[in-house]
Write a structure and sequence with these properties.
This protein is of the alpha/beta class. The protein is built from 22 helices and 19 strands. It has 3 domains: 163 residues, P-loop containing nucleotide triphosphate hydrolases (Rossmann fold, 3-Layer(aba) Sandwich); 175 residues, Rossmann fold, CATH 3.40.50; 122 residues, Dehydroquinate synthase-like - alpha domain (Dehydroquinate synthase-like, alpha domain). The structure holds nicotinamide-adenine-dinucleotide.
Length: 529
């Protein structure tokens, strides 16, 4: 785990960082000290001899180095994360925690070390107030805020541990005789062995993962399992959508067979939506179905793919053509996995969560709309609210109609257009979620053309996508190819393609037998050039 402390000079980043690292038994790094060591000069000397810009350049170089470092608490300099490049590098590799404090308290804390703080060289109270007024609004945009004005370093450490460990919430999904339970809990990965041991008697888990996820979190998963005396057999795939095919599934069957797995064995899908789709399909068909646990590691899979019991693989360019309904007995969601996701991966998860909001939860839609920057920077409390609400929407829709005979189809909002778009770009130009986002735009346009959708919906929806920097238009679109790919869509019944359209935020409806001209007109809404 990597924890990055930020905030104004004097808020206590270094004192807190040292104590936190000690308590967690991981290393501590003070960014300013690290730069001083590398340059063999004090910060004040770097400033006076080479100027602030040289110092900032050194700071950027060090942030890039820190991207790869793990199990460390980093105390950053006062301005480090106000630089967009530093912020984007560090936000995709760890948890940023922002300490806030009143200027009066800061003054009292730093009164003895002005000599070491070049920006306060004028030695004046005014200088601090000026810097505070300039920077505090910027810190307020950063995630995971803690007011530490009245806290001693050891209490701040306590608050940070609370933030990292969080509370648990659970949701049950009932599909006929099957129960599928989702647990959301920060830090559960370290106790995964105990969690599984309390439910199953298995001494072994068959784990499917991808190479990225396993290199980041494999060790922690395995050590959690070993603590509960559970051994592992691991099958690793290269990452990416292209793995979702029957050839890969065949290799998984061969591995399970070689390792003597049976239908009583425990299968764990550990990764994003690609892994839970392939794993769910393999586990549901090997010996007519193994015990299945999903541990989703992307936001998209936590809010959508790993829950709900649908799995599938692709054939040729046609998406999700072969699959089953098979409910994982447990889905274990640890929001801390999200700390290593890139901006694009966060965007993709937020699009799927936004979809859940559009389908049935206006407050979820507004929560995302109003907090895009903090969510992108992984504010844990906000993210947990988003995950919890999205899981609740999906659990409730699936419980009503587990096998998609009727209302569950609403979860496919954006998918009829989206799947065809993905296929038409051969799964390489657009990610699944980006295609679903564009698909939701087309579905809303279709609703508008048919007088079913509120005129206020589409502009508001596009605005949220734009805030996420998600695509709202696409170049070189081949509309007739998209139309022909829609013919393969599973949502087609008696030769008619069905669409889900939003009426307004929180309400959707299913429509069938749409005239081709409306479909083509809707596609124009996202066509660029
Ligand atoms: N079955 C369903 O109900 C359902 C619903 C929605 C989407 N899906 C499917 O999900 C797939 C997309 O899922 P996805 O976006 O999670 O894709 P993914 O599984 O390919 O993961 C995206 C990338 O993130 C990496 N990754 C995963 N966890 C990480 C972490 N914690 N830190 C850093 N990197 C990490 C992966 O290695 C991969 O490179 C699509 O195939 C889609 O069809 C299925």
């Amino acid at each position: 785990m990597k924890i990055i402390l930020t905030g104004m000079m004097g808020v206590g980043k270094t004192a807190v960082g040292r104590k936190l690292a000690e308590g967690m038994n991981i290393s501590f790094l003070d960014l300013d000290e690290h730069i001083e060591k590398k340059a063999c000069l004090k910060i004040s000397e770097i400033f006076s001899r080479f100027g602030e810009s040289r110092f900032r350049q050194m700071e950027r170089e060090v942030c890039k180095e820190l991207f790869l470092m793990n199990d460390v608490v980093i105390s950053t300099g006062g301005r480090t994360l106000l630089d967009k490049k530093n912020l984007s590098v560090l936000a995709s590799s760890g948890i940023i925690i922002t300490l806030h404090c009143t200027p009066e308290k800061i003054l009292s804390r730093i009164k003895n070390d002005r000599g070491q703080r070049p920006l306060l060289a004028s030695n004046s109270k005014e200088a601090l107030y000026r810097i505070y007024n300039e920077r505090e609004p910027e810190y307020l945009k950063l995630p995971n805020k803690l007011d530490v004005t009245h806290l001693k370093p050891e209490n701040v450490v306590g608050e940070i541990m609370k933030l990292i460990n969080g509370e648990e919430s659970r949701f049950e999904m009932i599909a006929g005789e099957n129960r599928s339970s989702s647990l959301i809990c920060r830090g559960i990965i370290d106790d995964i062995g105990t969690f599984l041991k309390n439910i199953y008697q298995d001494k072994k888990a068959f784990i499917l993962s991808d190479k990225n996820v396993f290199s980041l979190y494999g060790k922690r998963l395995i050590s959690g399992l070993h603590e509960a005396d559970i051994q592992e057999d691991v099958f690793l795939l290269p990452p990416g959508e292209r793995q979702k095919n029957l050839g890969v599934v065949k290799k998984i069957y061969a591995w399970l067979q070689e390792k003597d797995a049976t239908r009583f064995s425990l299968f764990v899908s550990f990764g994003g939506g690609v892994i839970s789709d392939i794993g769910g399909f393999a586990a549901s068909t090997f010996h007519r179905g193994m015990k299945l646990v999903n541990i989703p590691t992307t936001l998209l899979s936590q809010v959508d793919a790993s829950i709900g019991g649908k799995n599938a693989v692709n054939i040729n360019e046609a998406k999700n053509q072969i699959g089953t309904f098979y409910f994982p007995e447990h889905v274990v969601i640890d929001p801390l996995f999200l700390t290593t996701l890139s901006h694009k991966q966060m965007q993709e998860g937020l699009i799927e969560a936004l979809k859940a909001g559009v389908i049935a939860d206006k407050d979820l839609f507004l929560l995302i709309k109003n907090h895009v920057p903090e969510l992108m920077l992984k504010d844990l409390r906000l993210l947990e609210q988003v995950i919890t609400r999205a899981v609740k929407v999906k659990s409730s829709v699936v419980t009503q109609d587990p096998y998609e005979k009727n209302t569950r189809a609403t979860l496919n909002l954006g998918h009829t257009f989206g799947h065809a778009l993905e296929g038409s770009y051969k799964y390489s130009h657009l990610s699944h979620a980006q295609a679903v986002g564009l698909g939701m735009i087309c579905a809303s346009k279709l609703g508008l053309l048919l007088n079913l959708t509120s005129e206020y919906f589409l502009p508001e929806f596009k605005e949220v996508l734009t805030r996420m920097k998600a695509p709202t238009q696409i170049k070189n679109m081949n509309a007739s190819r998209i139309l022909s790919l829609m013919q393969f869509d599973k949502k087609r019944k008696e030769g008619k393609i069905s669409f889900i359209v939003p009426k307004k935020v929180g309400e959707t409806l299913i429509i069938k037998d749409v005239n081709k001209k409306y479909i083509l007109e809707s596609l124009k809404e996202i066509s660029h050039g």
